[in-house]
Design goal:
With 205 residues, the protein is an alpha/beta fold. 44% of the residues lie in helices and 18% in strands. A six-stranded parallel beta sheet has the order 3-2-1-4-5-6, with helices on both faces. α7 (125-138) packs parallel to α8. The N and C termini lie far apart (34 Å).
Length: 205
């Protein structure tokens, strides 16, 4: 969006408006025991639970899920709590770069869904999440970072979110993206009934 001096500035809905589920892909980035082990102990289980819950929501709404694990040979696989929720036949990409756009097979799968919004959860906020979000934005896609479903050892989580907000990246919460995806009460009640699982600890919707 550009404007000349004195001209009105219009709201850029494609970049900052509500997130449309039919335009979304959920990207689950590098949720491995190696990276979780860097986080404060009391934050690890609730963080994974929020990611898992959002994956269940995405599946119920037919939102594609892309998953990566960084350098699997050294850092281990995607944690079982999340890999078990991937659709049948899904590939967990062995990511050897920090930003997911830098590895052609990952980017090809992402673009193959024909959707322009990528909702990012996972680890670490200031490295792989930030570099992925900025790389997606450079390609004209819309990254959306979920603040309470991403993590990095303090104070790096907050620093990563600050970097993203300063770059104009949309940052929201698990609750926020849920309501943007469902949009109406009929869909809300359908999804809630279909999930039939408790909410993650401390979370309300």
């Amino acid at each position: 969006m550009t404007s000349s001096p004195g001209s009105p500035v219009f709201f850029d809905a494609a970049r900052h408006g509500l997130v449309d589920r039919d335009r979304s892909v959920l990207a689950v980035i590098d949720v491995q025991s190696y990276f979780l082990g860097k986080l404060p102990l009391d934050t690890r289980e609730p963080l994974v639970a929020r990611m898992a819950w959002l994956m269940r929501v995405a599946r119920e709404l037919s939102i594609p899920i892309l998953a990566t694990a960084e350098d699997v040979a050294n850092d281990g696989p995607l944690v079982a709590e999340l890999s078990s929720l991937l659709p049948d036949g899904a590939v967990v990409h062995d990511k050897m770069v920090f930003g997911l756009c830098g590895q052609p097979p990952i980017l090809e799968e992402l673009l193959g869904h024909g959707r322009d919004t990528v909702v990012l959860v996972g680890l670490e906020t200031d490295v792989c999440i930030a570099q992925s979000a900025l790389g997606l934005a450079e390609r004209g896609l819309r990254p959306v970072v979920i603040e309470d479903a991403t993590g990095s050892p303090p104070p790096n989580h907050d620093a990563g979110l600050r970097r993203l907000r300063e770059a104009g990246i949309t940052v929201t919460t698990v609750k926020g993206i849920f309501y943007e995806w469902v949009r109406d009460l009929a869909t809300y009640h359908r999804v809630k009934a279909a999930l039939n699982v408790p909410l993650p600890p401390g979370m309300t919707i």
